Amino acid sequence: MTTGTIIGSTTRGDALMTTPRLDQPLEPRRGLLPRPHYDPESFGRLSERIARFLGTARFLVYMTAFVAVWIGWNVLAPPFLRFDEYPFIFLTLMLSLQASYAAPLILLAQNRQGDRDRIQYEQDRARNERSIADTEYLTREIAGLRLAVSEVATRDFLRSELQQMLRELDGERRESHPTLS
């Protein structure tokens, strides 16, 4: 079943020609062989575990021991027990097969790590933006408080004003009552 706009009828019976709509995804095509179903997340985790193991010294030691045993067996064993004579073509095939699987697994693991890094970067950037906004807000608030405090009378200012008023009152009282002094 295809969705689209009807162009018109064709000469092939009652079928109508349609053009695919660009705002809707295409229906999946059916192939001759069924596609295997797998969980991409599980496969991704497995590929990361394998890629981590391939990048260790333990893997290099195991691979070196495997190759040494392979070559040693096929050189030192009696001729009827040897299964890969020199130039060890089967060993080359095995190592090539291992490399052909290892490379895509490593790339998949790197892509997943890149996705995680991108998400972490976006979260860090959002956190930094919030911190900057909070800092700017607090800076404005502190500036506002400084302005408000400069307009408020301080204790020393009030003391000096009261002392001046007392002196003025004493002076007025002495002038009005010269005999009291």
Explain how this protein is built.
Pfam families: DUF1003. This is DUF1003 domain-containing protein. Keywords: Membrane, Transmembrane, Transmembrane helix. It comes from Actinomadura vinacea. Helix content is 66%, strand content 6%. The chain is mainly alpha-helical and 181 residues long. It has a domain at 39-145. The protein has a two-stranded antiparallel sheet. A hairpin with a 6-residue loop joins β1 and β2 (16-20). α1 (40-54) crosses α3 (89-151). The longest helix has 63 residues, at 89-151. The chain is elongated. The protein starts with a strand and ends in a 5-residue tail after the last helix.
Short description:
Keywords: Membrane, Transmembrane, Transmembrane helix. This protein is mainly α and 181 residues long.
Write out the strand line-up for the largest beta sheet, numbering strands in chain order.
Answer: 1-2
The rough form would be described as elongated
Estimate percent helicity. Answer: 55-70%
Number of helices: 4
User: What series of H and E elements makes up the topology?
Assistant: EEHHHH
